[in-house]
Amino acid sequence: MCYLKVALIAALALAAAPGPAQRGSAAPGAPPDHPFAQPLWDDGRAEVSVYGGTTLRYGQLRPTTAHLIVVKEDLLRESLVKSDSGPVPGRTLTAIKYNFIADFPTGTYTYHQMATVMFDRRDLTVLKETMSHTEGCGITFVRIGPQHGAWMHEAHSYWEGEADRAVAVEWPEGPRAFADALPVWLRGWTRAGAPAEFRLWMMPAQVSGRSPVAATRPIEARITGSDGGTVRVPAGAFPSRVFRVVTAAGTDTLWFDANAPHVMLKMATAAGRRLELRKTRRLDYWKHTQNGDERLLE
User: Fold this and answer.
1) Angstrom distance (rounded) from CA 120 to CA 12
2) Would you say 184 and 70 are in contact if contact means Cβ atoms under 8 Å apart?
3) Residue 294 lies in a domain
C-alpha cells in the first residue's frame, strides 16, 4: 500500500457560495489577517522553501526532501487552469497556487509525490486540488473540484477498485476544510496572536499511492493554534505559532514563523512524516532551468 498522510492545506471546501465554478466556503470564516493580500505576492516571483526530514514507509524511516512553492497566478474562470494571456477582465481570477513536492527512496525505486491547491486570492477559498503519485508500482492521480455544477472527487490509479472513478463529495453540515491546504490557509491565522480553535469537517490528505473511497469522505477535525515558542530548524531560529490538527487518525502538528509571510517551519504527522525548513527564498524559479541552477536552493 502506498500512502502519505500529510496535514497540508487548509481550506474550504464546497458550498453554494457565489463565485467561479462554485467555490469552496471558507472554514471557519475568512482569515483575519491573510498575508497573501500583501504586495509581496505581486513581485513576479514565487516563495520557494526547501525541507528535509523523513517519511515512514514499509516500516522504515526514509530520508525525504520536500519543496513547498507558493505563487500568484491568473486562472481562467471556466476551466480553472492557468491563463496563457495573463489577467483578462471578466475571464480570469487571481489565485494563489500552492505546490507540495516530496521525494524519497524505497530500496530499488523512488517515490515522487506532488499536490497542488489553488486558492482564490481574495479570501483563500479553495478552487480545486490535484495530486499525483509516481513510483515503481505505477501512477495515481486525483482531482477534487467543480464539475457540471457539483464538486467531484476523481481518481485514476493502478489499484483494483480505485481506477477511473468519480465520486460526488458529500459534506455534513458545518465548517469545511481540506487537509492538504493547511500550510497556506493556516498562515492567515498565524499573526492574529490569540489562541484559536476550529471544529470542522476536513477532506483527508490526498498525497498517496492509493485513493480508496474513504479518501472522498470528509472527516471530523479539531484545529487549535497557540504560541509555539522559539523553533530551531536548519534554516535558523524563529518565533513561532503552532497548530495541532486532531482527527480519529491522530494528531498532525505544524509550526509557522510568527513573522510575515509566516513560512511553515516544520511539520510532524500522525502517519510518520517529519519535515524541517532548510531554506526559503523568493525566486522566479521557472527562469532557472540550466544545469547548476539547483545551487540557488542549496
Assistant:
1) 11
2) yes
3) no
Q: How many domains does the chain have?
A: 1
Residue 18 belongs to some domain of the structure: no
Q: Is residue 5 part of a domain?
A: no
For β-strands 176-178 and 196-203, DSSP reports them as parallel
Output the tens digit of pLDDT for each of the chain's 298 residues.
333 333 333 333 333 333 333 344 344 666 777 889 999 999 999 999 999 999 999 999 999 999 999 999 999 999 999 999 999 999 999 999 999 999 999 999 999 999 999 999 998 888 999 999 999 999 999 999 998 888 999 999 999 988 899 999 998 888 888 999 999 989 988 877 767 888 999 999 999 999 999 999 999 999 999 999 999 999 999 999 999 999 999 999 999 999 999 999 999 999 999 999 999 999 999 999 999 999 999 9
Of 8, 33, 13, 50, the residue nearest 262 (C-alpha) = 33
- Note whether residue 6 is domain-resident: no
Q: How many CB atoms lie within 10 A of CB 29?
A: 11
Beta bridge partners of 237: 232
Range of the domain at 96: 35-289
User: b/e per residue, 96-117, with b = 16+ CB within 10 A?
Assistant: bbbebbbbbebeeeebebbbbb
